[in-house]
Amino acid sequence: MRKDGATIQAMFGDIAPRYDLLNHLLSLNIDKRWRRRTVKLSAPQGPVLDVCTGTGDLAAEFARATNRKVVGVDFCGPMLVHGREKKSCRDVHFVRGDALALPLPSDAYDVVSVAFGIRNVADLDAGLRELVRVTKPGGRVAVLEFTMPPSRMWRAMYGFYFGRVLPFVGNVVTRSKAYTYLNKSVMEWTTKEELARRLKEAGCEKVDVHPLTGGVAAIHLGTKS
Ligand SMILES: C[S@@+](CC[C@H](N)C(=O)[O-])C[C@H]1O[C@@H](n2cnc3c(N)ncnc32)[C@H](O)[C@@H]1O
Protein backbone atom coordinates (compact mmCIF):
# COMPACT_ATOMS: atom_id res chain seq x y z
CA MET A 1 0.00 0.00 0.00
CA ARG A 2 1.41 3.44 -1.03
CA LYS A 3 2.08 5.67 1.94
CA ASP A 4 4.25 8.42 0.53
CA GLY A 5 4.20 11.67 2.47
CA ALA A 6 2.73 13.85 -0.29
CA THR A 7 -0.25 11.50 -0.84
CA ILE A 8 -0.95 11.21 2.90
CA GLN A 9 -0.73 14.97 3.40
CA ALA A 10 -3.09 15.66 0.51
CA MET A 11 -5.56 13.07 1.79
CA PHE A 12 -5.70 14.52 5.31
CA GLY A 13 -5.85 18.00 3.79
CA ASP A 14 -9.03 16.98 1.95
CA ILE A 15 -10.79 15.61 5.01
CA ALA A 16 -9.50 18.19 7.55
CA PRO A 17 -12.73 20.30 7.66
CA ARG A 18 -14.83 17.25 8.61
CA TYR A 19 -12.18 15.29 10.52
CA ASP A 20 -13.32 16.02 14.09
CA LEU A 21 -17.00 15.55 13.34
CA LEU A 22 -16.42 12.19 11.68
CA ASN A 23 -13.95 11.05 14.31
CA HIS A 24 -16.37 11.44 17.17
CA LEU A 25 -19.42 10.35 15.17
CA LEU A 26 -17.83 7.20 13.76
CA SER A 27 -16.31 6.20 17.09
CA LEU A 28 -19.48 7.07 19.06
CA ASN A 29 -17.15 9.26 21.15
CA ILE A 30 -15.22 6.23 22.42
CA ASP A 31 -12.06 7.87 21.06
CA LYS A 32 -12.36 10.51 23.81
CA ARG A 33 -12.23 7.83 26.47
CA TRP A 34 -9.20 6.21 24.78
CA ARG A 35 -7.35 9.54 24.72
CA ARG A 36 -8.03 10.13 28.43
CA ARG A 37 -6.73 6.63 29.19
CA THR A 38 -3.59 7.32 27.16
CA VAL A 39 -2.93 10.44 29.23
CA LYS A 40 -3.58 8.63 32.50
CA LEU A 41 -1.32 5.68 31.68
CA SER A 42 1.47 7.95 30.41
CA ALA A 43 1.42 9.90 33.72
CA PRO A 44 3.53 12.82 32.46
CA GLN A 45 5.95 14.44 34.93
CA GLY A 46 7.38 16.94 32.44
CA PRO A 47 7.05 18.27 28.87
CA VAL A 48 4.82 16.37 26.44
CA LEU A 49 5.02 16.12 22.65
CA ASP A 50 2.17 14.77 20.53
CA VAL A 51 3.26 13.63 17.05
CA CYS A 52 0.83 13.31 14.08
CA THR A 53 -1.33 15.54 16.24
CA GLY A 54 -3.84 16.40 13.50
CA THR A 55 -6.39 18.78 15.00
CA GLY A 56 -4.79 18.36 18.44
CA ASP A 57 -7.30 16.35 20.49
CA LEU A 58 -4.74 14.19 22.31
CA ALA A 59 -2.37 17.12 22.82
CA ALA A 60 -5.27 19.14 24.31
CA GLU A 61 -6.09 16.28 26.66
CA PHE A 62 -2.45 16.22 27.87
CA ALA A 63 -2.47 20.02 28.28
CA ARG A 64 -5.67 19.88 30.32
CA ALA A 65 -4.35 17.10 32.57
CA THR A 66 -0.92 18.64 33.17
CA ASN A 67 -1.82 22.34 33.17
CA ARG A 68 1.03 23.08 30.83
CA LYS A 69 1.59 23.80 27.16
CA VAL A 70 1.96 20.75 24.92
CA VAL A 71 3.71 20.69 21.55
CA GLY A 72 1.75 19.09 18.71
CA VAL A 73 3.51 18.25 15.41
CA ASP A 74 1.88 17.34 12.11
CA PHE A 75 2.90 17.74 8.48
CA CYS A 76 -0.59 18.53 7.16
CA GLY A 77 -1.23 22.29 7.09
CA PRO A 78 -5.06 22.16 6.94
CA MET A 79 -5.25 19.82 9.97
CA LEU A 80 -3.12 22.31 11.94
CA VAL A 81 -5.30 25.23 10.81
CA HIS A 82 -8.39 23.51 12.23
CA GLY A 83 -6.57 22.58 15.42
CA ARG A 84 -5.42 26.17 16.01
CA GLU A 85 -9.03 27.38 15.73
CA LYS A 86 -10.25 25.09 18.52
CA LYS A 87 -10.78 26.57 21.98
CA SER A 88 -9.87 23.22 23.55
CA CYS A 89 -6.43 23.53 21.91
CA ARG A 90 -5.49 26.93 23.37
CA ASP A 91 -2.62 25.30 25.28
CA VAL A 92 -1.36 23.35 22.30
CA HIS A 93 1.62 24.80 20.46
CA PHE A 94 1.16 23.49 16.90
CA VAL A 95 4.28 22.97 14.81
CA ARG A 96 4.40 21.84 11.20
CA GLY A 97 6.84 18.99 10.78
CA ASP A 98 7.41 15.46 9.57
CA ALA A 99 7.32 12.57 12.04
CA LEU A 100 10.28 11.11 10.14
CA ALA A 101 12.47 14.17 10.83
CA LEU A 102 11.05 15.96 13.86
CA PRO A 103 12.28 19.57 14.08
CA LEU A 104 12.96 19.08 17.80
CA PRO A 105 15.95 18.28 20.03
CA SER A 106 16.87 14.80 21.27
CA ASP A 107 16.12 13.59 24.85
CA ALA A 108 13.71 16.49 25.47
CA TYR A 109 10.23 15.15 26.34
CA ASP A 110 8.95 13.18 29.29
CA VAL A 111 6.12 11.74 27.19
CA VAL A 112 5.94 11.47 23.39
CA SER A 113 2.55 10.34 22.14
CA VAL A 114 1.02 9.44 18.80
CA ALA A 115 -2.64 8.60 18.25
CA PHE A 116 -3.87 6.94 15.04
CA GLY A 117 -0.89 8.45 13.25
CA ILE A 118 2.08 6.07 13.18
CA ARG A 119 0.08 3.67 10.95
CA ASN A 120 0.20 6.35 8.24
CA VAL A 121 3.92 7.08 8.44
CA ALA A 122 5.78 5.85 5.35
CA ASP A 123 8.59 4.12 7.30
CA LEU A 124 7.31 2.67 10.58
CA ASP A 125 10.71 1.81 12.09
CA ALA A 126 12.22 5.19 11.22
CA GLY A 127 9.11 6.88 12.69
CA LEU A 128 9.41 4.90 15.94
CA ARG A 129 13.12 5.74 16.18
CA GLU A 130 12.27 9.46 15.85
CA LEU A 131 9.69 9.20 18.67
CA VAL A 132 12.30 7.54 20.88
CA ARG A 133 15.03 10.02 19.92
CA VAL A 134 13.12 13.04 21.25
CA THR A 135 12.05 11.20 24.44
CA LYS A 136 14.12 11.71 27.60
CA PRO A 137 15.91 8.61 28.93
CA GLY A 138 13.39 7.01 31.32
CA GLY A 139 10.52 8.83 29.55
CA ARG A 140 7.56 7.16 27.84
CA VAL A 141 6.47 6.69 24.23
CA ALA A 142 2.69 6.21 24.05
CA VAL A 143 1.17 4.82 20.86
CA LEU A 144 -2.65 4.71 20.62
CA GLU A 145 -3.70 2.72 17.55
CA PHE A 146 -6.37 0.36 16.22
CA THR A 147 -5.57 -3.36 16.51
CA MET A 148 -7.17 -6.56 15.31
CA PRO A 149 -9.25 -7.90 18.24
CA PRO A 150 -8.54 -11.46 19.45
CA SER A 151 -12.10 -12.81 19.67
CA ARG A 152 -13.95 -13.98 16.55
CA MET A 153 -17.06 -11.97 17.40
CA TRP A 154 -15.14 -8.70 17.84
CA ARG A 155 -13.14 -9.44 14.67
CA ALA A 156 -16.35 -9.84 12.64
CA MET A 157 -17.69 -6.54 13.99
CA TYR A 158 -14.33 -4.88 13.34
CA GLY A 159 -14.28 -6.12 9.72
CA PHE A 160 -17.86 -4.94 9.11
CA TYR A 161 -17.23 -1.56 10.69
CA PHE A 162 -13.93 -0.80 8.91
CA GLY A 163 -14.90 -2.55 5.66
CA ARG A 164 -18.43 -1.16 5.25
CA VAL A 165 -19.56 1.51 7.71
CA LEU A 166 -16.44 3.68 7.87
CA PRO A 167 -15.72 3.91 4.10
CA PHE A 168 -19.39 4.47 3.28
CA VAL A 169 -20.10 7.21 5.83
CA GLY A 170 -16.62 8.75 5.60
CA ASN A 171 -16.48 8.96 1.81
CA VAL A 172 -20.02 10.33 1.54
CA VAL A 173 -19.45 13.05 4.15
CA THR A 174 -16.00 14.10 2.89
CA ARG A 175 -16.72 13.41 -0.80
CA SER A 176 -13.30 11.78 -1.08
CA LYS A 177 -11.80 8.28 -1.13
CA ALA A 178 -9.84 8.90 2.07
CA TYR A 179 -11.91 6.55 4.18
CA THR A 180 -11.30 3.69 1.75
CA TYR A 181 -7.59 4.26 2.39
CA LEU A 182 -8.19 4.36 6.16
CA ASN A 183 -9.98 1.01 5.99
CA LYS A 184 -7.06 -0.58 4.10
CA SER A 185 -4.46 0.96 6.40
CA VAL A 186 -6.23 -0.51 9.45
CA MET A 187 -6.70 -3.96 7.87
CA GLU A 188 -3.03 -4.15 6.82
CA TRP A 189 -1.72 -2.77 10.10
CA THR A 190 0.69 -4.77 12.22
CA THR A 191 -0.22 -6.85 15.30
CA LYS A 192 0.12 -5.68 18.91
CA GLU A 193 3.01 -8.10 19.48
CA GLU A 194 4.85 -6.94 16.37
CA LEU A 195 4.43 -3.28 17.28
CA ALA A 196 5.75 -3.97 20.79
CA ARG A 197 8.77 -5.76 19.30
CA ARG A 198 9.50 -2.88 16.92
CA LEU A 199 9.18 -0.32 19.71
CA LYS A 200 11.82 -2.27 21.61
CA GLU A 201 14.03 -2.36 18.54
CA ALA A 202 13.61 1.41 18.25
CA GLY A 203 15.07 1.88 21.75
CA CYS A 204 12.40 1.17 24.39
CA GLU A 205 13.64 -1.17 27.11
CA LYS A 206 10.14 -2.17 28.22
CA VAL A 207 6.79 -2.04 26.41
CA ASP A 208 3.43 -2.55 28.12
CA VAL A 209 0.38 -3.20 25.95
CA HIS A 210 -3.07 -2.08 27.14
CA PRO A 211 -5.93 -3.38 24.96
CA LEU A 212 -9.06 -1.18 24.75
CA THR A 213 -12.73 -2.00 24.08
CA GLY A 214 -12.46 -5.73 23.33
CA GLY A 215 -9.05 -5.21 21.71
CA VAL A 216 -10.19 -3.00 18.79
CA ALA A 217 -7.50 -0.53 19.84
CA ALA A 218 -4.51 -0.59 22.16
CA ILE A 219 -2.10 1.69 23.92
CA HIS A 220 1.54 0.63 23.66
CA LEU A 221 3.53 2.28 26.39
CA GLY A 222 7.27 2.03 25.94
CA THR A 223 9.94 3.26 28.35
CA LYS A 224 13.12 4.65 26.81
CA SER A 225 16.30 3.07 28.13
C1 LIG B 1 -5.79 9.83 11.64
S1 LIG B 1 -5.02 11.36 11.90
C2 LIG B 1 -4.82 11.38 13.66
C3 LIG B 1 -4.82 12.77 14.22
C4 LIG B 1 -4.82 12.84 15.74
N1 LIG B 1 -3.63 12.27 16.32
C5 LIG B 1 -6.05 12.21 16.33
O1 LIG B 1 -5.92 11.29 17.12
O2 LIG B 1 -7.15 12.63 15.97
C6 LIG B 1 -3.37 11.05 11.34
C7 LIG B 1 -2.52 12.31 11.28
O3 LIG B 1 -1.17 11.90 11.07
C8 LIG B 1 -0.55 12.88 10.26
N2 LIG B 1 0.66 12.30 9.66
C9 LIG B 1 0.75 11.17 8.92
N3 LIG B 1 2.02 10.97 8.55
C10 LIG B 1 2.75 11.98 9.10
C11 LIG B 1 4.13 12.31 9.08
N4 LIG B 1 5.03 11.57 8.42
N5 LIG B 1 4.53 13.41 9.76
C12 LIG B 1 3.63 14.19 10.42
N6 LIG B 1 2.31 13.94 10.45
C13 LIG B 1 1.88 12.83 9.81
C14 LIG B 1 -1.63 13.26 9.26
O4 LIG B 1 -1.38 14.50 8.65
C15 LIG B 1 -2.87 13.28 10.16
O5 LIG B 1 -3.11 14.55 10.68
Could you please describe the fold and organization of this structure?
The protein has 225 residues and is α/β, with parallel strands linked by helices. The protein has one domain: Rossmann fold, CATH 3.40.50. Helices cover 48% and strands 22% of the residues. The protein is built from 8 helices and 7 strands. Strands 3-2-1-4-5-7-6 form a 7-stranded mixed beta sheet, sandwiched between helices. Strand 1, helix 3 and strand 2 form a beta-alpha-beta unit. The site of S-adenosylmethionine has 21 residues, from helix 1 and helix 3.
Strand order of the largest sheet: 3-2-1-4-5-7-6
Distance between the termini: 33 Å
Q: Helical region count?
A: 8
Q: What small molecules are bound in this structure?
A: S-adenosylmethionine
Q: Cα-atom Rg, whole angstroms?
A: 16 Å
What is the H/E string?
A: HHEHEHEEHEHHHEE
Q: What structural class do you assign from the helix and strand content?
A: alpha/beta
Overall spatial form: globular
CATH class assignment: Alpha Beta
A few lines on this structure:
This protein has 225 residues and is α/β, with parallel strands linked by helices.
Topology:
Elements: H1 5-26, H2 30-42, E1 48-51, H3 57-66, E2 70-74, H4 77-85, E3 92-96, E4 109-115, H5 124-134, E5 135-146, H6 152-174, H7 178-187, H8 192-201, E6 204-212, E7 217-224
Parallel strand pairs: 1-2, 1-4, 2-3, 4-5
Antiparallel strand pairs: 5-7, 6-7
Helix pairs in contact: 1-4, 1-6, 2-3, 6-7
